[in-house]
Each structure stands twice: as structure tokens, then as C-alpha cells.
Amino acid sequence: MVDYRDLATVKQVAAEAPFITEATLRWWIFHAETNGLKPALLKIGGRVYIDRAEFNKWLEGQRMAPKPLMPAA
User: Fold this and answer.
1) Using CA atoms, how far apart are residues 31 and 26, in angstroms rounded to an integer?
2) Which UniProt keywords apply (predicted)?
């Protein structure tokens, strides 16, 4: 279920994550069908909103190598 508090506009995400430009986000959104970003997007009345939780999952899936597990203490 979508929590409206997790939704953000392209501008908001770009402002919160300075390593991602607005242009890069729009490129990823344009190619969402092929890059797997589509589950993180909602389109309402012509505006695109990004579900932050799903976007973070998508970002985690973009790692070039798996993150090493921390040894149990």
C-alpha cells in the first residue's frame, strides 16, 4: 500500500539527494519500463510521483556488487 507521506516529486528527490540531478531522474523515469524503476512511480493527473521506499529499493538493486554482510557480534 502506498503511504502518501512517502511520495515526492522529481524536484523534491533531486533536492534531497544532491548526487542525483533532476535531469538524471527524468531520464530514469523515461526509461522506467526497461530499467526496473516503474514500481517506484505513480502517475496522477499527468504528474509523476516517486515512492521513496520503492525508489530506495531500486537504488539498492543497482549495486555493482553485493554489500558484504557484517559479522555477528
Assistant:
1) 9
2) DNA-binding
